[in-house]
Each structure stands twice: as C-alpha cells, then as structure tokens.
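ok trying this again, last paste got cut off
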Amino acid sequence: MALRIGLLGIGKIARDQHIPALRANRDFELVACASRNATVDGVTNFPDLATMLAGTRLDCISICTPPQAHFDAALTALRAGCHVMLEKPPTATTRQIALLADEARRLDLTLFQTWHSRFAAGVDAARDWLRTRELTSGRIIWKEDVHHWHPGQQWIFDAGGFGVFDPGINALSVLTEILPTDVCVEGALLEFPENQQAPIAANVRMRTPDGVPIVAEFDFRQKGEQSWDIELTTRTGRLKLSNGGATLAVDGTTLTSDAGLAGEYPRLYQRFAKLCAAGHSEVDWRPFQLVADSFLIGERRMVAPHHV
C-alpha cells in the first residue's frame, strides 16, 4: 500500500523536483500540500502544517520550506506520528538536526535528512574509484546565478539562510560521501554584501587528517554557464565530477552521465520509501559541520550590496 504523503512548502524546488518525483513513484500517494500562498492541482491544499495534519491522514511529510522553518515543522510532524523527509540544508543550526534525530529515534519514526546531490549518477562510482587510491589534492568550483535558481527569495540572504552555502553545501555533501577519509576546515574567506546577512561568495580551505589540501570556491554571481565541479587528484589518476555530480570522468574519459537533478529526486524518494519500510533513519550532518566551521573561523569581507 502506498504511503500517504504531504508536502510542506510549495516553491520552485517543490514544483520542479519533488512533485514530479512523487507522482512517478508508486510507493507514495501525494494527498496534501501546505503553503501560505500556493496550491497544487489534484490534492487537498492547506495554509499551514497544523491544518494539514488536522485535516487529513498522513504517513509521512516532506519538508521543502527554507531551513529556518525546518526544525519546528519536523518536530511537529514527528510528534504527529509522521515519518519526515527534510530538504537540505537540514536546519538553521547544527544542534537542531541533532535534536530531531534524537526525537525520531525516541518515537521510532524515520527521519531522512537528505543531500540530493549524493544521489547524482556519478557519486557512487566516484566513491568506489577513490577507495583504492591515494589522494594528493582536491578542488571544488561551485558557482551559479542566484537570480536564476532563487528568484526573489530574500530568505536565502537572511540570517540562517546560508547564502552561497545553500548550493555550496551540495558540493560538501558529495565530498564527504566520496572521500575515503575525513576532512576539516582550515580557513575561509566569506564575502558578505553590505545589505545582507549571509555570504554571496566564499573560498574555503580544507585539509584531510593526512594533510591533503582541498579548496572550494563558491559564488552566487555566476552568469552564463553554471559550474558545479569537483576535481580530485590521486597518485594514479584524476577524477572529475561535473554537472553537480551527474557526470563522472577519470583522466578525461567520461564514465557516467545523466540528466542531473531530474535523476536525483526520484532516487531520493526511492530511498525514503525503503527507510520508512525498514523503520530506519538516515542523518549525516558532516557537510553542515563544514559550513558551520567556515562561519566560525572564516574571515569576513564586505562587498557591494546585493538585491534579490
């Protein structure tokens, strides 16, 4: 029997990715949506989470709101007896996701704290390739146009909105998934627009416990072609994940490629269904910790004002 699921937050990512993925997945029946100012055809619509929980029977809830609202919504959904899937970034603070993991465990419910980029086509093969090789250096170039991907969305530059780390955390989620070792932040330069509370660009210096340097360049001001690349050099070859992890090349030869986000979200919901059936949770906040550490020790530089 399909799981009855409700979707909280009907923005661009919900319409572009979550709704199509859910409607193509026979493990779920999308029966309700909740949003202050949007509706979805073919389901029952509610103005907020409380009325959705009161107005229909749900087995699980997928939360697609900005991260500042994730903690209260997820806690409410868990305490209502629903399994929860969280869009990334998981919460506004690292402590909040730890508390949600504890609550899901206490209630014997599934919490799937997602990193959609880990479900890109090239990620698993990249992890397997790196397992038997000695890493010598790494570089991340993750640059995109905020006006295209987050049109008119002021929340992303508000406190707790992550700024350029909203996409940047995708790269860090892939990095922590494929590396055969840990990595920590050594330093960062964060560029804050004079009129905003979150960075528009960041350069982050990381290092593995064995001293291997990895640098990351994040920027929200990219025009034209967008860049979502991870390059890792080993003593016996070089790996490149591009298009957000959808394309994998080794020493210049393409091994894997697909349609990017269009393939990631169906795989996310396939995993969520399996976790719910098994009664397991999946929570990994290592990418979140790298972002938090960048804020903790990063140098701040003020740059020109930015308007959404």
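PB: full thing came through this time. The chain has two domains: 3-113, 121-257+291-303.
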